[in-house]
Amino acid sequence: MVARLAMHSGFVLASLICILLAHYAAVLPHEYAHSFMAFALGYKSDPLVIHFGGTSVGNRISLINIDERVDYVPMFARGDGWAAALVGFAGPGLANGTMYLVSLFLLRWPIVRRNVWLFTLVFWFNFMNVANFFCYVPIRTFASHGDIGHITQGLGLPPWLALVVLGTPTALAMWFLYTRTLPQALGRIAPDSSFRRGFIVSLSVVIMFGYFGLAGFVAYGEPSHTLSALSLGLIPILLILCRPSRRWMRTRVEASRDPIGLKA
Length: 264
Prior knowledge:
The protein has 264 residues and is mainly alpha-helical. The chain is built from 11 helices and no strands. Helix 4 crosses helix 7 and helix 6 runs antiparallel to helix 8. The two termini are 35 Å apart.
């Protein structure tokens, strides 16, 4: 009993470290992508300068106050809305989009599949990039500022069009995460442990819909507040739908137990 408790505690701690590292790996390139795009377009003198948000414990863990330190006002003042849109898109679109595709490739790479903790880190890295999609579209699609606001205002697009155009790939990425990547992760990380499977599923749902989904509550307007509230409501639904004991989940988990990871 004591040995099992120690094993579970070690797994939880190691998983949380992987999640923290994956979060950093998804957020920092996102912010630097904004910064380097602004530099490339002539709207920033030093692309390496960003604001890390302070040294509080909360910010060190979540990076919630990090900022690219890009001034969008001159872009709009000069009529360069397209530049503001491109800089805004660089973070979630170029950086997180590219890293998401790379992470999908890495999850099927035999070298990664053979090392459980390397696979765990890459899985959460994949998850964090999808979560970055979700916290912008749909959560902040109707905001007048922020990345999506810069895109819609810069291109003169109505928010609902951005919701359709950008929300479609986000929806597909989330569907693939919970119906393909998550079962694959359970089969590789926790092939014979119901505790570990339940832990991974619970964390993936709560972090996605209970943390990233709350972004709309932070000064982004009433539509974003409503979407964040709806996100919270999805937590119990997803926990039920993705329960490891469900037949569809068990089937896909079993299909992912191939040690070299060649099965879908």
